[in-house]
Amino acid sequence: MVQSYLVMAVSAIKALKDRTGSSSAAIKKYIVANNTGLVFLQHALKLALKTGVANGTLIPVKGSFKLSVSKRARSKFCLYKNQSRTSSSSNSPPPTF
Fold it and tell me: Staple partner for 21: which of 8, 61, 75, 80, CB 3.0–4.6 Å?
């Protein structure tokens, strides 16, 4: 299954976990390493990063890119939601973010 470059870039930024943001070169290196059989197109990555900045998914920081606050909060919520399904039923209240 072929993913869009924006989805691959977001997953690369999540996986790299760089506090100051991930550079486009680091994102490219991650995409090439983890997507075998992909013919990498640099212009498609640049366009995806520009689109991500335009729609608010990514935040540009000194030549690097970070996930927006809403995107990080949503991923934490999904992580909590998945953990609650797999863990045993406990009576503790859900964490507040």
Answer: 61
